[in-house]
Design brief:
alpha/beta, 6-stranded mixed β-sheet, 3-stranded mixed β-sheet, 51% helix
Length: 275
């Protein structure tokens, strides 16, 4: 069951389980509202009983955290994106940003991570550069960041950029961040040290802060998690399990990338006044 999980990127490492529950709740409320309009309150009551059962089995179905292989857990399914596909997309974005003068692309890894997802991402980047970017002459390196707390990771990244500021010849032309926290920290450090335009940032997630940074050309691109799709497919997996007793081991999600070309649409969707 778990061999497929080794290839998937753990979204819940970057999206707290409580956030997923909110997404599930929003989608379930929509289902309840539709049932009430179409069938009446009696069916809504029955659906509410089912929803209560959904929450009862949610930890069993999705696992308590889903950030490691958890081979001994009772998890029945994983909703996420494939780590290798994420790596391939990062690789394509590196190729897009690089030129004949690009010497280095640095991948910031999470030193505290227990899963193998980020290693698979790194392999995906390597293979994509080898197959599609063999015209480039750049070195792909990795550096571990001990992000045991929000401020700890940010301070370590700030120290890294202090080194780059003092020794600009050592700064890579491209920096790839595999989580939201490092993306925001690197973005802030680039601004603080007046290095905007000197380094291309490839980030992860699509918060309003990250979207605005893409719009201002501080971040070149970011992998976006479709949280609506995540919520819908999670509920669908839960419904399937409740109705049949079976569910797919791995429910795949799309890998989307936000760039300057499409960020306006994401910003409109993120605006509270979008209507």
């Amino acid at each position: 069951m778990f061999h497929q999980y080794r290839k998937c990127h753990s979204i819940l490492q970057y999206l707290p389980l409580s956030h997923l529950y909110l997404l599930l709740q929003d989608h379930i409320q929509d289902v309840l509202h539709q049932d009430t309009v179409e069938y009446g309150t009696a069916d809504k009551y029955q659906k509410a009983l089912q929803v209560r059962h959904v929450y009862t089995v949610c930890h069993t179905l999705l696992g308590e955290r889903c950030i490691s292989d958890c081979s001994g857990s009772q998890r029945k399914s994983f909703v996420g994106i494939d780590s290798y596909d994420v790596g391939r997309e990062y690789g394509r974005q590196i190729i897009r940003e690089a030129n004949s003068n690009t010497k280095e692309a640095l991948i910031l890894m999470n030193a505290a991570a227990e899963d193998t997802g980020q290693n698979i991402i790194f392999n995906g980047i390597q293979e994509t550069l080898a197959n599609e970017g063999n015209h480039l002459n750049l070195t792909l390196t990795a550096r571990a960041v001990m992000a045991d707390s929000q401020f700890g990771g940010a301070e370590e990244i700030r120290s890294i950029f202090q080194e780059y500021y003092l020794h600009p010849e050592t700064m890579p032309e491209i920096i790839v961040c595999l989580n939201e926290q490092n993306t925001v920290s690197v973005c802030q450090a680039v601004v603080d040290f007046n290095l905007v335009g000197q380094v291309d940032i490839l980030g992860y997630f699509a918060t309003e802060t990250i979207l605005n940074a893409i719009d201002r050309n501080v971040i070149a691109a970011s992998i976006a998690v479709d949280t609506q799709q995540l919520g819908i497919r999670s509920v669908e997996a839960l419904d399937e399990y409740l109705e049949t007793g079976y569910v797919s081991d791995f429910v795949a999600m799309d890998v989307n990338t936000v760039t300057k070309d499409n960020v306006k649409g994401y910003l409109r969707n993120a605006s509270p006044d979008k209507g």
